[in-house]
Predict the structure.
Amino acid sequence: MKYVDEYRSADAALAIAAELRTLVEPGDHLKLMEVCGGHTHAIYRHGLDVLLPDEVELVHGPGCPVCVIPLGRVDDAISLAERPEVTFTSFGDMLRVPGGRNRSLLEAKARGADVRIVYSPLDALKIAVAEPDREVVFFGVGFETTAPATALTLVRARERGIHNFSVFCNHVLIGPALRAILDSPDVQLDGFVGPGHVSTVIGTRPYEFVCSEYGLPLVVAGFEPTDILQAVAMLLRQLHDGRAEVENAYGRVVRRLGNPRALAALETAFAVREDFEWRGLGAIPRSGLRIADAFADLDAEQRFTVPGARIEDPKACRCGDVLRGRAKPYECGVFGTACTPERPLGTCMVSSEGACAAYYAYGRHRT
Amino acid sequence: MGVHVQWAWAHMCLGIPGQVLERLDDGLAKVDFSGVRREVSVVFTPEAEPGDWVLVHVGFALAQIDEDEARATLQLLGEAIAAELAT
Amino acid sequence: MRCVLRLRAAPHVSGVVTLADGAGGKASRRLVEELFLDELRNPLLEPLGDAAIVGMNGARFAFTTDSYVVRPLRFPGGDIGELAVNGTVNDLSVAGAVPLALSAGFVLEEGFPLDELRALTASMARAARDAGVSVAAGDTKVVERGAADGLYVTTAGIGLLDLRAVLGLQRVRPGDRVLVSGGIAEHGIAVMLARGNLALEIDVMSDTAPLHELTASLCAFGPSLRWMRDPTRGGVATTLNELATGAGMSVVLTENAIPVRDDVRAACELLGIDPLYVANEGKLVAVVAPDSADAALAALRAHPLGAGAADVGEIRAADVPLVLVETPFGGSRIVDMLVGDPLPRIC
């Protein structure tokens, strides 16, 4: 596959790994946060952690939009799905995420709710057109990578006068999450492997505060093995040189100013919520998107009533610590025992990008 | 990307490179991914022409792949390999 | 001191059958073990193989059954009729048996068009001829409109055990090689995309095919052939997990050795599915002694259905039997047992 396979070159990966070893001193303990769940997944899937020097520790971050959805919001989604007139559409990832009392959209589907997996929000809109008797709700989940797709779909729905469509909006913003991590007193990091695909939309400029205000380097990275290793090499070189800059190692798709059209779509269709609760991270101001007033009639939260309950995470669940890089999956007391992919207590174990899921799936044979 | 291990369903950060085959109406294009074809919205990458490569996420092209940058990255990888062989 | 509470798999959480129970993975296994085996327990059933081995008066037969609920009924490369014949022929073949005869039970929905039924039956007849078997017995039931989604088929089959074959999980040894007869994931992708829900166009066809000739060529290797299986629902990953658990040894695959067509691989990437979990209907997995691996591979490749055969990995002793994939980067990852159902109603 072009633009994929070339960046999976084992020779290149091994060569970069060799260079990494020259960039550390024995006794170093460098903690780099890979923000994006996609990076966590890629690292474990390809077994790249074996290529890192012992002195470098990759810490998982909050860049898993599925993982950070609080239990209460999942319950709200389930309540929408359970309405007989609703066809609830969602990305596949969300189906097994547990809400309160361990229910999920998949389980609601088994009990008769009309829940359907879609690849794109435009597919959900197609269903609304094809089935005018159904109230189609789309579960909008994701960072700024995915939000433009939802935005455009809302615009299309409006343009075409499609009324039986609405969005349950849970889109979140990566910038505030990064700041919340940086402001966490107990988190100590030396640098960031910056998210790749969010950056195609927002560009690299939004990360500049990480360097200017917190003095840490950040390198935006792609998702193939050599992309990730290259970014780690660039971070180590920065640390070695005493620099703290934003660098772009994913230049083939990321530009400094991002994608202005996608950003404009976000401005049109969304407004920023004052507060949004993140699972494990608590309320982060101005970190979540809601549907703009101009599109209020397409807002599922306004068209329908949802319980809106705030549900505590299970006591044993340490998703919050994992999402903040304070704990490794295997350090959670219920990892692999009470919390498994089949019966997850927390979202980190369910989402394909969750650190716990990746570790359990791919790496648990290594501890 | 092989998710799956257990969950076997789409992986949200997923952005896949594909090649534009033809432009269609309504801001859509037919895009080829190694022999699999899908309609993709190119509203965010309106300059993409047949033959160009785009990065696609949830049915939307988010960026056109910059072939020069891609080549530059590959060059760096090549240099890393050469440096390693030389040691 | 921290007490680690290791919970056994809980009883079925929801109290009802879920789609995951039909996926061929962990949930299916639990349903079979905790409900069906629990109630039906007997020595013939306990091995939970694809086929039961029944002996009588010195002759040994393989006996198996399968139900076919695939949607849509017709898909690129085949239809439910062909699938129903080949699937059961294959279960007999990988048990080391020469398929002799099948029975076919039909559950038909009121209103199902007769010409379509005839066409699907003709398809079964063709498949049976190609496999050298007869459909010797059958049954038909009709249910009210809405109760059967068109058509369900159940086939049962009986075959005579090839005396050269000495198959069983207990025969697997560390160092044995794992062979796959060709490119994986084609059936599952072809059917899924034929449903039209995912708006992907691909030229892939189901690989549904009778494997009796391939298996016969492997049975010629006698005791060097340890075990065979056709990786249907849940894909190669599920089959290899059953192998690892049943043999008590790890299966270690080499990532780049696993044969997958480019377009199938791309479809899987787009959908976020690992091809190892996608159903096959014309492929087999075989475990062979290391010194017979090259010859066995050649035997597979000599047959049109085995042209893409590959040696994908080996069996290793392990304290905790796992299926692992070794990546080109020197790392490895676990290929776990399937939990959810990526592709319902695939066969």
Remarks:
- Chain A touches chain C at residues 1, 4, 8, 10, 13-14, 44-51, 92, 95-96, 102, 106-107, 109-111, 116, 119, 123, 225, 333, 337-338, 341-343, 352, 360-365 (CB under 8 Å).
- The mean pLDDT of chain A is 91.
- Chain A is about 35% helix and 15% strand.
- The two ends of chain A are 33 Å apart (CA to CA).
